[in-house]
Specification:
Blueprint lengths: L2 E5 L4 H12 L3 E6 L11 E4 L5 H8 L4 E4 L11 H14 L3 E5 L26 H14 L9 E6 L16 E3 L14 H14 L5 E6 L1
Parallel strand pairs: 1-2, 1-4, 2-3, 4-5, 5-6, 6-8
Antiparallel strand pairs: 7-8
Bound molecules: NADP nicotinamide-adenine-dinucleotide phosphate (NAP).
The site of NADP nicotinamide-adenine-dinucleotide phosphate has 29 residues, from helix 1, strand 2 and helix 4.
């Protein structure tokens, strides 16, 4: 059993990870600006803004694992990378492992090939900012953290998202920074992404690594 704090644990990806981790008996704490109408039994929900260092500190202190499931949208559109830098610093200070929910476009289609984010003609323009901000976290910000921080950036398949929640198959494939399904991006449901995500936390055998989950 681990003490896991999920920043943004009421959103699409975050709530699936929270439900999976709690079902496996982990001690889960969530930080979000609003409380869920119906939370997962046994989970501690804390209301606060991740842009507020004191709020972050209070939920990261004492955690063994910190999960970032924020999205670079709305008020976080411009401050997303700064907030994740703060989360990374606090996780490192507290000796916690850091696992971030990432995006598909930071992956590569093949070894040595440019990442998908270098050509966004495949993605609608309204998502370009979100895609670039998310990719910059794994391309620039996480590699710049102290070596003492153990981070894992977990990209989903291209077809992952709240618009396509899918169902539980109880399976997934795990890849590194080369997309498991490069052609068309592939798919993975929210619950199966969470299954793979919590498996990564429990196994703990990745260190400062970019991985991806897809069927
Ligand atoms: N196919 C893909 O590549 C793909 C598809 C979807 C998502 N993603 C990525 O996955 C990540 C998560 O996306 P998502 O769709 O799961 O996001 P989401 O559903 O919008 O969830 C965001 C979560 O963060 C919380 N939050 C937002 N601002 C906050 C703040 N200032 N302080 C504390 N909590 C805050 C929200 O709750 P409150 O609003 O109550 O604070 C919510 O719990 C993003 O990085 C996104 O880019 C990738």
């Amino acid at each position: 059993m681990s003490r896991i704090t999920v920043i943004g644990g009421t959103g699409y990806a975050g709530s699936a990870i929270v439900a999976e981790a709690a079902a496996r008996g982990h001690d889960v704490t969530v930080l979000s600006r609003s409380l869920p109408a119906e939370g997962v039994p046994g989970v501690t929900y804390v209301q606060g803004d991740a842009a507020d260092e004191a709020a972050l500190s209070s939920v990261i202190s004492g955690a063994e694992v910190v999960v970032g499931a924020l999205a670079p949208r709305g008020p976080l559109a411009e401050s997303f990378r700064d907030v994740y830098r703060s989360i990374a610093r606090l996780a490192d200070t507290n000796g916690a492992r850091l696992y971030l929910v990432g995006g598909f476009s930071s992956l590569r289609p093949a070894a040595g090939a440019p990442r998908f984010v270098t050509d966004l003609s495949h993605a609608p323009a309204e998502f370009h900012h979100e895609i670039r901000a998310g990719a910059a976290v794994v391309i620039e910000d996480l590699p710049a953290t102290p070596e003492s921080l153990n981070w894992v950036f977990v990209s989903p398949a291209g077809g992952f998202g709240s618009y396509a929640p899918g169902e539980r198959r109880g399976e997934y494939r795990l890849g590194g920074d080369i997309a498991v399904q490069p052609d068309g991006g592939g798919e993975i449901s929210g619950v199966d992404y969470a299954l793979g995500f919590v498996d990564l936390i429990e196994k703990g055998d990745h260190h400062r690594a970019h991985v991806n989950l897809a069927y």
